[in-house]
Fold:
Amino acid sequence: MKERLKLLYELNKIDKELQDLNNLRGDIPQQIEELESKKREQEEILNEYKTELAEIEEDEKKVREDNESLTNKIDKNDNLLRAGAVKTNQEYNALAKEIEDAYEKMGANDNVLNNEIKVKKGELTEKINTLQAEVNVLTDNLNMNKETLTVLNEQTEEEERELKKQRDMLVPRINPDDLEYYEQINRVRFGDTMAIVRKGSCLGCFNSIPPQRVIEIKMAEHFFHCESCGRILISEEFIDE
Structure:
């Protein structure tokens, strides 16, 4: 049992160093994930605005083309009237009515252009510019965090690779049941699974341990865990050995 405890303690040392390396990254990976999610959401909204703006600009184009066609029609009919090409009052009145209707339609088009399309374009353009600025800030922050994480990964990559290699070599030497017991606690303690017992106290949480339990821990006939913090306990004497 003593050797089994020592193996778990060696494993815990490796896991603790791996966790320390991971802690160097802090919450940067989480920040990157949150920034990417937020950026995707903003870009989706931005694309919707741009699509809506493109549709309005297409409507604007059609209205202006209609006005251009009406202008050509007015000019054509006006030239006919001025040239005296109209022979009867009926023809004259018909052309005059077409000109009048064209001016009325152009007026309605101008009203749509100025009071509807122009307003909508202005509102959407402002929204797009504001949202684009926010996306740019998110992109800058995202790139900065990614660069920082890359630097940290490069600094720790070799050490982390070596520690994982050591862990892979150590794990096969550990009793499978012991390893399962250890991993259950490690999923909660994150590399801080074991604690040394020194002078009747758990060095993980500094909680006092009853004298009889301290003796049992030294005898190492069973696994014991701290009633306060849940760590697996190992006697300091084993570590000294």
Notes: Residues 193-240 form one domain. The beta strands are 194-198, 201-202, 232-235. The chain has a mean pLDDT of 92. Residues 89-170 form the longest helix (82 residues).
